Amino acid sequence: MPNDIIDAILDIQPDLTTQALEENLVPAEPSSPAPQEPAPIFPETTIDSDLNYSRFKLKQIIDSAQITLESAIAVAEETANPRAFEVVGTMIQSIVAANKELMLLHKTKADALKAGAETRGEAKPTGDITIEKAVFVGRAQDLLRQLKIARVEVDQEA
To answer: What is the CATH classification number for the domain harbouring 104?
Structure first.
């Protein structure tokens, strides 16, 4: 009945009634979802957004912990309860740890960007050269001669 009113308003002449439609409906076979192609990952963008998010959340935690710490200090002073002072000490340690974690984010970002540059084949930034292992191939007499030459050069520079 309600469909007849709608059909009349829209001036539609239905070929099949609702009951006939329901009888003629064939259940669709369940189809497996089409595999979706993974979204392209841009390491710099992902790293930047994740680090910015982590930095933002750490700052929020530090700020809220600071407010809570001030309240805990007030409670500890008023009650003079040793447990309250212990809680204050623990909170201070937690705030210090969160601040250290915040500073580590900067190092993490620098390391990640450096690793990303190396994987793309970009030149490493110039700077200090670190020699982890030095091997001299030759006789002891040759090594001593080179050390004396190096010492004289250092003395001349100074």
So the answer is: 1.10.287
